[in-house]
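Q: Here's a chain of 295 amino acids. Please give me its 3D structure as tokens.
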Amino acid sequence: MELTTPSEAAGERLDVHLAGPLGSRARAQRLIDDDRVLVDGRIRQKRYVLHGGERIEIDDTPEPPRPSDDAPAPFAIAWEDEHLLVVDKPAGVVVHPARGHRQGTLAQALEARGAAGGDAERPGIVHRLDRDTSGLLVVARSEVVHRALKAAIQSRAVTREYLALVGGRPAARAGTIDAPLGRDRRVRVLMSTDTDEPRDAITHFSIEEPLPAATLLLVRLETGRTHQIRAHLRAIGLPICGDPDYGSAGVFGLERQFLHAAHLAFDHPLTGARVDVRSPLPDDLAAALQRARDE
């Protein structure tokens, strides 16, 4: 699909403008997030503000269906009640459908457990983890709870802490990385501080365990941009061990990035009770950590 924005579209967000021709804003956002929308030949974010007169190209070609016998995504329930779940996701599981991963996602598996609210294609999903990042995420079971949890994350009322093994050693015991992130100017599949589309991003870290050739960090997200921890730690010269895109693949026997969502805490949106859940390191990361200790 190709279209030219009229002059009266000036000031509109890209996703809002495309909601009409694409049928819904959610559909427009999915295509933009999948890099299937070009504005004057360039990938733009969904919040990009139009000026009028832009040429927009939309790749809305249906993807070939995946085999129907895809196994359901594995997961464990770390905490639940009738309103929400806290899920412990293993590495290798995609959270919600996206280009190249239409079936076998966590969101689809969670529908059977009553996940609901938000986007119909990713019911209940409030935030996400990268495919090869393991650990905790919260999932809603109703539209009311989904809205409340999204608001809590946006207001930074949800504690999200990760364990990350990085190469090198920070100059201080603790620190904050306050550096806007966006798609890298040269490698569009990566996020970086070298971007034309910066968005505020803040990451806090502290040393959990110093090791001979690496450091185990406790990392806390204040914002939640795509690949935020991975891109931020690389930007300060502390790449995550095992990360094939932002760090050093294969070190300490790792087959994926050493990044685990170990702690999730928030006030229950309906009862007000504190929900505080922790997840131990999975076996592959525990083994890599022992190798790093033995160096």
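Q: Can you summarize the key feature?
A: The first strand starts at residue 2 and ends at 4.
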